[in-house]
Design a protein that fits this description.
The complex is a heterodimer. Chain A is α/β, with parallel strands linked by helices. Helix content of chain A is 33%, strand content 15%. In chain A, the strands form six sheets. A seven-stranded mixed β-sheet of chain A has the order 7-10-1-15-16-4-17, sandwiched between helices. The longest helix of chain A is centred in the middle third of the chain and has 31 residues. Chain A is globular, with a radius of gyration of 22 Å. The longest helix of chain B has 21 residues. By secondary structure, chain B is mostly helical. Classes of the chains: A alpha/beta, B mainly alpha.
């Protein structure tokens, strides 16, 4: 990625006024120089589980030998812990890809929505997602200009329903739908990078932008107050939510005045090209563009929390040519073709490993604090079912990270007696300074996962 | 798990949520040229013809069976439909409606892209109660600023009709009043005009363009733009509120234009005509003849029956080499023309939707179906379906989309018929554990028919699956891509009560019985009503005594008190 930005004053002012992601990077390197290192959390999901015989690695004499599906992670093995024996525990309704996605994100029971005429398996969460809980409660994660990022490389689903495509929830009713367009995300996250630093003219421009934004928000506030007067009491919750949104825009702008650190690794490249969303042929390219934004946003410390979905559990992304003679197949439809789909499913999951590994390698090559960005980022590489038959048992889970996020021994696999997936979240919460006694309903947790953070 | 199998009218309670619930609006082409800029630049409203109300008492009448004595109604009465009146509320515009509204007000080149919180699916209407999230508000700010910046760069005069100025003047003040009235769907108060003028002047410190840009940003990020109010004023002595004429206009704008009201609607609101049933009818008739409204409502029907899912149906190419983009496109075009013709072209009724023997196809599709037609091979012209097919039920867009890539799906087709056509209540999804058991118990069977039989005889699966598998079995005569295969055609016993208890001999038989007794018609009415008011209908519609055409059903619903009244509910 090259460092060839061309931001005009006009674009700068526009982005300052934009209200989202208002943040100057003109104190770059200060924080890095002080040696304070941030922790980050990334939930990274790929669809439709894995093919266990080709997924399960082996450990001989303490050495981890990666399986065919995990082999692409060899370059980042020193930051890798394979977890075997975690079961997703359903409680409530929804189809299995749908509820699995929500269970991975929230760890809490689901409610079937049962909308749509053709047998939609959609479901709703009953709790915020863990990334959002940790964002709000962890002393290590919050307070950044861009609260969190939710991105997806594809969001087409087979039936009506949305839960398959959403990992993050601010509340049971506030769905954080992933953004698909790298260009748009880029503008939101980096549109305000200010060349020239805190020069008097920049600061004056900043003050003007703030005054302009405030005059617009003030009008919204007065409009909202008048509506509240006229509205029935039942609508207060909507009005309060709008007021919160206004306040958060004001706050993000204020973060401008107290910018945090950003290292020399903080170098947004050129804006990605515009693209048409949900095109199978560009699935990998779009995923890489989105993941590159996450990497840079982490490096610039614009945000410390992100979730990324390669594709929903009922993905219709098509693949072809992954091995000689492979025909074009759509991922989820083909996953129900029984045993004869195994070669294609294995190849597709290996492809996701390759693509994800490219991103992880870029984290490992990005200096951050006294280590690398991967050392300071906890990546949960998860999936919403264990395998194509919808089983929730023995989920294929891999955790990446390093000493900065408590992963001190890596390049290993931990095999557990079957225990709930939520135990991983409980351990992660502890790691981020948010002690949690339980997560979800009684059968959905047993206690923080041991032997991971050591 | 509770299941209600008997099929009487009350089974419709809740059943219709089938097609409602969440949903989204139609994205459609910007309406044709009549430049929105020129509309705003002039003093608006030209060419509108405020319909005359008949005056007097018409304003407060419910549309049918309105009685002047007795307890005031808190229901919607529309034809044979009587359902609970939605409560007063703030109705949030769907993303697509915000986009369309801004494009209508500023010109088609100024269409924003509002994706925050966007649904990835196509239900009937977006949740009008969804919170305005920070990301949505941030996107409204950035998009309105981007578009404002483009307009400010050289289009100040063409949009406003005023000379460029960085300081508010009489001309710009008039523009703000006109824009505000369109965007907020009501006249601005003097105070609002003053506040927006102050925003303009604040932007004006950076020049005239910046002034206009900031003004547009203030308008299109305001709560009054994002929400339509459904507050109204209380009808004395009743538990209902009569919406203001501007609120009625706003409803019609959202439901029929997916946008702000057009000039004629606004004029009818200003004259008070929309408060009367006659005036409302005049506007409804006018709007329903507009191509853009017809196209939008056609899309609503297509979404209601999930006909758009054919676009993403995938089939195993080894097993179904015939199924490719050509057949898929033909199915999609057939469905579009079929619905369009049924609703707008032929006085189609709910019954004819299910039972008609005619559809549309090119020669390739006719060959695939075994249908007969006359016309150029490539053209989609009317075709006569073979005896084994019947209306909506056997469209390729239904049969192929409600099947898996490698086989038919008794479950998907059965659920579709049960909920969308038979209007029976929801069947809960199995819990993960139960789903696992079902998969295990049916793993050794190779045909859908055998799997269905296994489920029926299992105490684990049977209680649920026997309530819809039968519908899917009737359609086993059609393979995964919707092709007729006689071998599967066997009578299927079903016992849902009433007309649905029978040995069905095939799809036409099933379609006939689904249509009988007016049940499907009442189902369609309620779905349309739910769409029009963007609220799930929570109580039953009676089956109509005589079936109205689909277009007349829309007319009746739109002229009913559904668009004019709201319940006070528990709060005031």
């Amino acid at each position: 990625m090259t460092h060839s930005r061309n931001l005009t004053r006009r674009a700068l002012l526009a982005s300052l006024g934009a209200g989202s992601a208002l943040y100057g990077l003109f104190t770059s390197m200060e924080s890095a120089a002080q040696g304070s290192t941030a922790k980050r959390l990334l939930v990274l999901a790929h669809p439709i589980g894995s093919v266990r015989p080709s997924w399960l690695p082996v450990t001989t004499a303490g050495n981890l030998t990666l399986s065919p599906i995990l082999a692409p992670f060899e370059p980042v093995k020193r930051n890798m812990v394979v977890l075997d024996g975690l079961d997703l525990v359903g409680d409530g309704g929804g189809g299995l890809h749908e509820s699995g996605t929500v269970l991975i994100g929230t760890g809490s029971p689901t409610i079937a929505k049962q909308q749509g005429a053709g047998g939609s398996d959609d479901c709703a969460p009953t709790a915020p997602s863990m990334d959002q809980i940790l964002l709000n409660k962890s002393p290590f994660l919050g307070g950044r200009p861009v609260g969190s990022l939710q991105l997806a490389a594809d969001n087409r689903v087979e039936d009506q329903g949305i839960s398959c495509a959403v990992l993050s929830y601010r509340s049971p009713t506030d769905y954080l739908y992933p953004e698909l367009d790298p260009n748009k995300v880029y503008q939101q996250v980096f549109g305000n990078v200010m060349p020239g630093g805190p020069s008097p003219s920049n600061m004056a421009a900043l003050a003007r932008a703030r005054a302009r934004q405030q005059s617009v928000l003030d009008f919204s506030k007065r409009d909202l107050a008048r509506l509240e007067q006229a509205a029935p009491a039942s609508e207060k919750v909507k009005i309060d939510a709008f007021a919160t949104a206004i306040r958060e825009l004001e706050t993000t702008f204020d973060a401008q005045a107290n910018p945090g650190g950003s290292g020399s690794a903080c170098q947004p490249g050129m804006a990605p090209a515009p693209f048409t969303p949900n095109v199978s042929e560009s699935h990998g390219a779009v995923g890489q563009a989105l993941l590159a934004i996450i990497r840079t946003a982490f490096a610039c410390d614009l945000t410390r929390v992100a979730s990324f979905l390669w594709a929903p559990g009922t993905s219709v992304v098509t693949f072809s040519g992954l091995f000689p003679g492979m025909e074009t197949v759509a991922h989820h439809p083909h996953s129900h073709a029984g045993d004869r789909a195994i070669p294609e499913l294995t190849a597709i999951d290996t492809w996701y490993s390759e693509q994800t590994s490219l991103f992880l390698q870029s984290l490992a090559q990005t200096p951050d604090g006294t280590g690398t960005l991967l050392d300071n980022t906890l990546v949960l590489y998860v999936t919403e079912v264990a395998r194509a038959n919808h089983s929730f048992e023995q989920l294929p889970i891999v955790v990446f990270g390093g000493p900065g996020v408590g992963i001190r021994q890596a390049g290993r696999m931990v095999q557990y007696q079957p225990r709930p997936f939520n135990d991983l979240w409980l351990a992660v919460a502890n790691q981020f300074g948010v002690p949690m006694a339980s997560l979800g309903s009684a059968q959905q947790w047993s206690g923080p996962l041991p032997n991971l953070f050591a | 798990m509770h299941l209600e199998f008997t099929y009487h009218t009350h089974a419709l309670l809740g059943a219709l949520l089938v097609l409602t619930g969440c949903s989204s609006e139609v994205r459609r082409e910007p309406p044709s040229p009549a430049s929105p800029m020129s509309t705003l630049a002039s003093s608006g409203g030209n060419g509108s013809q405020p319909p005359q109300g008949t005056g007097g008492s018409a304003g407060l009448n419910a549309s049918s069976g309105g009685t002047s004595a007795g307890p005031p109604p808190t229901t919607i009465r529309a034809g044979a439909c009587e359902v609970a009146l939605p409560a007063r509320r703030l109705r949030r515009l769907a993303n697509a409606q915000m986009e369309q509204a801004i494009a209508d007000l500023l010109g088609p080149a100024s269409r924003p892209s509002i994706t925050a919180g966007a649904r990835s699916t196509r239900p009937l209407f977006d949740d009008p109660d969804a919170p305005v999230s920070t990301s949505l508000l941030a996107q409204l700010h950035s998009e309105s600023e981007r578009i404002g910046g483009e307009i400010a760069n050289g289009k100040f005069t063409s949009l406003t009709g005023c000379n460029e100025t960085a300081l508010i003047d009489t001309c710009v003040s008039g523009f703000i009043a006109r824009l505000g009235e369109r965007a907020f769907r009501r006249p601005l108060s003097a105070l609002e005009l003053q506040e927006l003028s102050a925003v303009f002047n604040e932007g004006g410190m950076d020049g005239a363009g910046a002034a206009l840009e900031l003004l547009l940003r203030a308008v299109f990020t305001a709560p009054s733009f994002v929400w339509v109010t459904e507050f109204g004023t209380q009808v004395p002595g009743s538990n209902r509120a009569e919406l203001t004429p501007h609120e009625v206009a706003a409803q019609l704008g959202l439901s029929l234009l997916d946008s702000v009201p057009d000039d004629a609607l606004l004029a009818a609101a200003e004259s008070g005509a929309l408060s009367t049933e006659v005036g409302l009818r005049a506007q409804v008739d006018r709007l329903l003849s507009e191509p853009v409204v017809q196209a939008g409502l056609t899309a609503v029907f297509r979404r209601a029956f999930m006909l758009e899912d054919i676009a993403i149906a995938e089939k195993d190419q080894a097993k179904y080499p015939e199924f490719g983009s050509v057949l898929r496109s033909a199915f999609a075009e057939e469905a579009r023309l079929f619905i369009e013709h049924q609703v707008w072209g032929s006085s189609g009724t709910p019954t004819s939707l299910l039972t008609t023997q005619s559809s549309f196809g090119n020669q390739a599709l006719a060959d695939f179906y075994g249908a007969s037609r006359n016309g150029p091979a490539e053209a989609f012209v009317p075709m006569q379906l073979p005896a084994e097919r019947s209306g909506l039920l056997t469209l390729g867009s239904v049969l192929a989309a409600r099947a898996t890539a490698v086989d038919t799906s008794v479950v998907r087709r059965g659920l579709f018929v049960r909920r969308a056509l038979a209007c029976l209540d929801e069947v809960p999804s199995p819990s993960p554990a139960l789903a696992g058991q079902i998969a295990t118990q049916t793993a050794n069977y190779t045909t859908e028919r055998d799997r269905a039989a296994a489920r029926a005889s299992s105490s684990t699966c049977g209680p649920c699956h026997t309530t819809f598998d039968g519908f899917g079995l009737v359609l086993e005569g059609f393979d995964s891509i919707g092709r007729f295969r006689r071998a599967e055609q066997q009578p299927v016993p079903l016992a849902f009560g009433g007309a649905l208890t029978a040995d069905f001999t095939g799809a036409p038989d099933l379609a006939q019985r689904l249509a009988s007794g007016g049940r499907f018609a009442s189902c369609v009415s309620r779905e349309l009503l739910s769409y029009l008011v963007a609220a799930p209908a929570t109580s039953a519609c009676e089956a109509p005594a005589t079936e109205a055409s689909l277009a007349d059903t829309l007319r009746t619903l739109l002229a009913s008190n559904a668009m004019r009244e709201r319940s006070l509910g528990g709060s005031q």
